[in-house]
Amino acid sequence: MVSWRGGSGAALVLALAGACGDSGRQDTAATQGTLTATATAATDTGGGTAPTSTTQSTDPQPTSGADATGMSGSVGTSPGDPATGDATTDDATTDPTQTGTSDTSTTNTTNTTDTSTTNTTNTTNTTDTMGETCDPPDVLFALDRTLTMHRTPDGQMPVDAPEYKSSKWSQAVTAIEGVATGGLDGQLRLGLELWPKDPGGDTCITLEERILNVKPATNPNCQEGEILVPPALGVGPMITAAIDPLTTHICKSTPTGAGLITASNWLVDNVVPGRKQYIVLVTDGADWSLSCPDPSPLLTTQQIAAAGIQTYVVGFFGQEAQAGALAFLNDMACAGQTAKDFAQNCVQMGGGYVAKDPMFPTPLYLQAGDNELPATLTAVAEEILQFCVPG
Question: pTM for this one?
Answer without folding.
Answer: 0.71
